[in-house]
Every structure is written in structure tokens, then in C-alpha cells.
């Protein structure tokens, strides 16, 4: 297959992530240019478009996808809008980088999975960017060598400075822990089979009514136990850490103190304040990898199956949070397309 010259990309949703992906395509990565911007808020799309030469602005994703200079799509609208955007992209036979979540629940994720199977080939890469983070990639490579033996346990910590307005207790799971669900499945190569959620008395930092922090336990079909501390109003920084405990050793990522200073009777470093800062390189690598693969006519990276599997784990986790106890994950059989 001949490589496409420069990929024309439509970005759907020009909020925090969409605008950052536009900047990345314009200024950081190679092989693509932004040819269309879509937002239900036309003024927002126009203000991002003001920084891009020669792109069209739309309020309807399907209108942008019909344009001849759109070869591929980045979906960065909120989760509930993803299914419609993905199905429209399938109709126009366009490859998609879809921000997480694939869709907000397992039933809609299954509909997307079925629609992609009808196409008979993969079209979607899901935006689980931790798979492109240098530290997580190193950890994955180490585990693959087998030198530490079999992974027994995975400990995760995921802390955000403050939750955005309008957050609910369920969003700690659906918006944030989705990443640990993907990391667990990807690092260990196991499916998550059951979830338990515990929550201490909420932090005084948390808005009224939000159960923050939470502590989740995953069981996997490979016999591993995984825990996740999610704390989205910790106040002091954005921290994402993971430690794998194996038969013959442990490996840990996310301590991330790039520079340590010693001055005036103190030593220390700084902590990133959000994901845009902490995962900047990962987002760059994710989008560059997607552009390169798309230009070769390939689809790589986290698949629709991965997005669906995470949606199914989220559903079990939300039930465990609301009702207590251990909730099994209900997963359909993995289709051959995602073998
Ligand atoms: N991979 C990661 O680390 C992160 C991923 N995300 C994901 O990125 C997506 C966007 O999140 P943010 O940028 O934080 O949200 P945001 O609220 O800043 O931006 C969303 C934009 O989409 C627009 N929009 C809403 N419905 C739309 C529709 N039907 N069609 C087109 N545009 C529509 C809104 O007007 C808004 O401008 C979400 O899926 C979110 O989960 C968000 C933060 C980090
Ligand atoms: O995906 C993300 C956000 O939506 C979510 O709200 C944050 O908690 C995560 O750390 C970030 O990566």
C-alpha cells in the first residue's frame, strides 16, 4: 500500500483535549494537518480554528466527515457523544482515534464493536495514552522478558489536584480509573473478572456528596490481584504510580521526580499539576503512532475490544460502589477480529 502524503484530520470536540490535539498536530508531530474542526459550541471551534490555516468549522460531525480533505478523525467530545461520532466515521469509512472512554457504558460499546465487525476490519484506536508513556512502556517490556517471574499483584495510585465542577462519585471510576483498567489488562495480559470497591469517609477536600477517595480491587483471569487508589481532590498534584509485584522482584513507575534541587536547608522536586503536563510525551507518541499507522493504511494500538472490556469493568465497578460487595464482570466472547 502506498503511504498517504499528509493526513487530513477532523477533530471533533475542541475543548481541553481536542484543542491540545490540534496544537500537537500543528506544532509537534509530522505527517498530518487539521482540515476540519467540529464542536456543538461553534464559537469554541472558531476560536481554535483561528490558530489553524485553512480548516473548515462545523457543528455537525457528519458534515465534517463528508468533506473530501478529511482522511481521518480524532474524537475528543464527551463520552456520551462518542457512539454517534464513531458510527458516522464507520459510514464514511474513516479511521478514528477516539479519546477514552470508547463509550460510557457496555451496551453502547458493544454496539460499536458490532458495527466495526460488520466493516470486517479495525477502524478505531482508543485513546488509552498510558500505553505510550515511556515509563509504562519500559515496565511492559520488563514484564515481557519474564526475568521477574509471574506478576502476582499490581498496586496503582491515581491522584488529581481537584475534580472539575459537576463530578459525581461514579466519575472517579468512569472517567479516571478507566486508565488503570486498561493498564491492568495491557500490562498483565489478563481480563478483569471481578471488582470490589471500598471508600473511606470522604476527604474534607471533596465537594459535598462525592465519595473521594475510593479503593478498588480487581481480580483477573490470570490469578492476579490489582488495587487502585483513586483520589481526585488530593490538592497537591497529579500523580500516577504503578508497582508490579512479581515472583522474583518488583518494578515501579511514576515517581517522576525529573529534577531534585537542594537549596536553603531543603531538598525536593516538583509534582505535575495535571495530565496534560504529566502525559505530554505519551499523547505526542500516541498521536504520532496513530498518524503513522493510518498513513500506512493500518490500525494499531488499543482497540474497540479494549474499549468495550473497560466499559464492562466500569459497569461492575459502579455497581460495586453503589451496592457494595464483589461484582463479577460480564464480558461477551472476544471476536476473532480482536484476537
Ligand atoms: N486521555 C486522557 O488522559 C484524557 C481524556 N479525556 C477525554 O477526552 C474527551 C474530551 O474531554 P475534555 O476535552 O476534557 O472535555 P471538554 O469539556 O473540555 O471538551 C469537550 C468539547 O466537546 C464539545 N462537544 C460536546 N458534545 C459534542 C458533540 N456531540 N459533537 C462535537 N462536540 C461536542 C463541547 O462543546 C466541548 O467543547 C472525553 O472523552 C474525556 O474522557 C479527557 C481528559 C484526559
Ligand atoms: O482521562 C483523564 C481525565 O478524564 C480524568 O478526569 C483524570 O482523572 C485522568 O487522570 C485523566 O487522564
UniProtKB/TrEMBL annotation:
<keyword id="KW-0520">NAD</keyword>
<comment type="function">
    <text>Involved in the oxidation of myo-inositol (MI) to 2-keto-myo-inositol (2KMI or 2-inosose).</text>
</comment>
<dbReference type="InterPro" id="IPR004104">
    <property type="entry name" value="Gfo/Idh/MocA-like_OxRdtase_C"/>
</dbReference>
<dbReference type="InterPro" id="IPR000683">
    <property type="entry name" value="Gfo/Idh/MocA-like_OxRdtase_N"/>
</dbReference>
<dbReference type="InterPro" id="IPR036291">
    <property type="entry name" value="NAD(P)-bd_dom_sf"/>
</dbReference>
<dbReference type="Pfam" id="PF02894">
    <property type="entry name" value="GFO_IDH_MocA_C"/>
</dbReference>
<keyword id="KW-0560">Oxidoreductase</keyword>
<dbReference type="InterPro" id="IPR050424">
    <property type="entry name" value="Gfo-Idh-MocA_inositol_DH"/>
</dbReference>
<feature type="domain" description="Gfo/Idh/MocA-like oxidoreductase N-terminal">
    <location>
        <begin position="8"/>
        <end position="128"/>
    </location>
</feature>
<comment type="similarity">
    <text>Belongs to the Gfo/Idh/MocA family.</text>
</comment>
<feature type="domain" description="Gfo/Idh/MocA-like oxidoreductase C-terminal">
    <location>
        <begin position="140"/>
        <end position="329"/>
    </location>
</feature>
<protein>
    <recommendedName>
        <fullName>Inositol 2-dehydrogenase</fullName>
        <ecNumber>1.1.1.18</ecNumber>
    </recommendedName>
</protein>
<comment type="subunit">
    <text>Homotetramer.</text>
</comment>
<dbReference type="InterPro" id="IPR023794">
    <property type="entry name" value="MI/DCI_dehydrogenase"/>
</dbReference>
<dbReference type="Pfam" id="PF01408">
    <property type="entry name" value="GFO_IDH_MocA"/>
</dbReference>
